[in-house]
Design goal:
The complex is a heterodimer of chains A (395) and B (249). By secondary structure, chain A is α+β, with helices and mostly antiparallel strands. Chain A contains 11 helices and 10 strands. With 249 residues, chain B is of the alpha/beta class. In chain B, the strands form 2 sheets. In chain B, strands 9-8-7-10-6-1-4-5-11 form a 9-stranded mixed sheet, sandwiched between helices. Chain B has a two-stranded antiparallel sheet with strand order 2-3. Chain B has a single domain, classed as Rossmann fold. The mean pLDDT of chain B is 95. The chains are: A alpha+beta (395), B alpha/beta (249). Bound molecules: flavin-adenine dinucleotide. Chain A: Belongs to the acyl-CoA dehydrogenase family. Chain A: Keywords: FAD, Flavoprotein, Oxidoreductase.
Chain lengths: 395, 249
């Protein structure tokens, strides 16, 4: 019999996924240390305050965490979607979903509109500040009467000489109170139906006619500020329109792909942290003469949850990898969002259960994480809507 | 002035170390590895000396399997200028490492070697001292403060019961203690830049050193499990228990 030479393989940079390179591993190491030492010990106060201090965002900017995929000329690192997934996962592990989403909306849901759709002049104007954490961004698509159905939006932008006049209300806008720059979707063609006739505008804080209607009080994500934004004859220069007129819907759809990978990665970071919290708890908590860990019913459920999280995490990496290669991965991304948004809630429920009464007290991290997890199956593409996207592509 | 900083790849300090079932060592398969924390402090100190204009070049050296190159990369991302990897699958012990470092010091001619006082895997606390002896150089171990002036280094040492300050004539070996500094983060742009910094890979034979171990590990075992604590009602009961149960007084 012939002997077959084994195929020579390069040793992977780490065992999480074969596509990770050494710089991914180093980025994760730095993020993990940053979260452990500069976030977890102090973030409880931000939950009460309702926002993350600017200092912290600037510090993250200085370390390059806010410019992972952006051009080097503006201070970015020109890395890839896998690195973005690592950022989201590690911020998710912080146990403070509100902190994580404050950063991730800025880096991966709002500023990509400028990075992808902006002209060179527009990018040069704002990107360096965005990457440095000096300019914080928000994205305003959802309206009181149009959420999942993006094409149902009614906010209008009427051309008036060299300007547009924006009128309408946006709802549930993360970073809405504190952002310096908001990317607003509005109808530029009142005649066009549905997805056509929408454009994106960069609107700076303090622009006359633009105001915060109210800050919204939420079940979770308490350290993230969320607002209703009002545009009342808000005059925005045509130079602030991002991309071609009436093509905004496609920009939104494109950015949704990235947003959903990020939300999936964040959710799986949270799920890993919840399992770690539960493990620590059940290993020391005693009942009926033994630790809870010694009860097979408990450790087997934790074992199965860990397996499901490991599988979902690989799906996140797979989608991120496809995206980094430039492949259309709407199917995988929709699967990620549907799966991770639900799974993180199942993990949250079980891990809170294993904590017993302690899991119901505000002083336990798991209690906060349960509240934070709830929105993961609603925001950024609700599970039902994501499943429709998956179903369409099942062939 | 050149500074040489040896950096060791060890099991990450967050990992709960497990002993291999056959008792030959600790489990490293699939375990997260990182730079020895004391070595991070050494890199940080070297980078600060460079930022102050005292040092002109920092060389990071690691010895062991090919993945030690990643540990060097981390040092480069923190601010070291270039790296040397002495690649070997041999089980490296302090004397072999010190001998190889000596040959590298002879070749590179640094004025200062800054290194961790010990590695958190085997806690030997020996390599720095051995290197200083082999070179015939001054040594300042367990440093919590280092000041360089001309051809002198003033090193504050953490010793049992307090601090000791020694004046060393350069060249010298300094080993770092925990309180010397707080290592910086490697920023993402610096991580990207580090990819382009050179790492030279050589073998122990290139240094004329046989790295074969001189010490034999007979058995590695878990320490005994910590017993649950007890509450005592009074000082008298505590003293009695210390005498009869713990047998420490
Ligand atoms: C905390 C938070 C932060 C947010 N941040 C932002 C932000 O920064 N910017 C922004 O633009 N938006 C933001 N959103 C909005 C978010 O994206 C929307 O809430 C989400 O898209 C769902 O829209 P909706 O709330 O209008 O729900 P609806 O669209 O009214 O949906 C209600 C329910 O109906 C289900 N449903 C809808 N369509 C179908 C269907 N075809 N078949 C079956 N079921 C269906 C949905 O799945 C959901 O369960 C945020 C929301 C929250 C809660």
């Amino acid at each position: 019999m012939d002997t077959v030479e084994p195929v020579a393989r390069e040793a992977p940079a780490c065992l999480d996924h074969p596509a990770f390179r050494p710089e991914h591993v180093m980025l994760r190491d730095q993020l993990r240390r940053f979260v452990e030492t500069e976030i977890k010990p102090v973030a409880a106060a931000w939950e009460n305050k309702g926002s993350v201090p600017r200092e912290v965002l600037r510090r993250m900017g200085a370390l390059g965490f806010l410019g992972i995929r952006y051009e080097e000329a503006h201070g970015g690192a020109a890395l890839d979607t896998l690195a973005t997934a690592i950022l989201a996962e590690e911020l998710g592990r912080s146990t403070y979903g509100g902190f994580a989403i404050t950063v991730l909306v800025h880096t991966d849901m709002a500023s990509p509109h400028l990075a992808n759709g902006g002209t060179e002049a527009q990018r040069a104007r704002w990107m360096p500040g965005i990457i440095a954490g000096e300019i914080i961004t928000a994205v305003a698509v959802t309206e009181p009467d149009a959420g999942s159905d993006v094409a149902g939006m009614r906010t209008s932008a009427r051309r008036d000489g060299d300007d547009y006049l924006l009128n309408g209300t946006k709802m549930y806008i993360t970073n809405g109170v504190l952002a310096d720059l908001v990317f607003v979707a509005a109808r530029t063609d009142p005649q066009a139906k549905g997805s056509r006739g929408i454009s994106i505008f960069a609107v700076e804080r303090g622009t006359p006619g633009f105001s915060v209607g109210r800050a919204l009080d939420k079940q979770g994500w308490r350290s993230s500020d969320t607002a209703e934004l009002v545009f009342d004859d808000c005059r925005v220069a045509a130079a602030n329109r991002l991309g071609a007129e009436n093509r905004g819907f496609y920009a939104i759809m494109r950015n949704f792909q990235n947003e959903r990978i990020v939300l999936g990665a964040q959710a799986m970071g949270e799920a890993q942290a919840m399992i770690a919290l539960a493990l620590d708890w059940v290993r020391q908590r005693r009942a009926f003469g033994a630790t809870l860990w010694e009860k097979q019913a408990i450790r087997q459920r934790l074992a199965m949850l860990s397996a499901r999280v490991a599988a979902a995490r690989q799906l996140v990496y797979h989608a991120a990898w496809l995206d980094s290669l430039g492949h259309d991965c709407t199917l995988q991304v929709s699967q990620v969002k549907a799966l991770c948004g639900e799974l993180v809630n199942e993990v949250a429920y079980a891990c809170q259960q294993f904590h017993g009464g302690m899991g119901y007290l505000r002083e336990s991290a798991i209690e906060r994480m349960v509240r934070d997890a709830r929105v993961q199956s609603i925001g950024g593409g609700a599970t039902e809507v994501m499943l429709e996207e998956v179903a369409k592509r099942l062939g | 002035m050149k500074i040489l900083v040896p950096v060791k790849r060890v099991v990450d300090y967050n990992v709960k170390v497990r002993v291999k079932s056959d008792g030959t060592g600790v489990e490293t398969a699939g375990v997260k590895m990182s730079m020895n924390p004391f070595d991070e402090i050494a890199v940080e100190e070297a980078v600060r000396l460079k930022e102050k204009g005292v040092a002109t070049e920092i060389i990071a050296v690691s010895m062991g399997v090919a993945q030690c190159g990643e540990t060097i990369r981390t040092a480069l991302a923190m601010g070291a200028d270039r790296g040397i990897l002495v690649e070997t699958d041999a089980d490296l012990q302090p004397l072999a490492v010190a001998k190889m470092l000596k040959v590298l010091v002879d070749r590179e001619q640094p004025t200062l070697v800054v290194m961790g006082k010990q590695a958190i895997d085997d806690d030997m606390n020996a390599t720095g001292q051995m290197l200083a002896a082999l070179l015939g150089w001054a040594q300042g171990t367990f440093a919590s403060k280092v000041a360089i002036e001309g051809d002198k280094a003033t090193v504050t040492r953490e010793i049992d019961g307090g601090l000791e300050t020694v004046a060393l004539k350069l060249p010298a070996v300094v080993t770092t203690d925990l309180r010397l500094n707080e290592p910086r983060y490697a920023s993402l742009p610096n991580i990207m830049k580090a990819r382009k910094k050179p790492i030279e890979t050589i073998k122990p034979a290139d240094l004329g050193v046989d790295p074969a171990p001189r010490l034999t590990v007979i058995k590695v075992a878990e320490p005994p499990k910590r017993q649950a604590g007890k509450k005592v009602g009074s000082v008298a009961e505590l003293v009695a228990k210390l005498k009869t149960e713990a047998k420490v007084i």
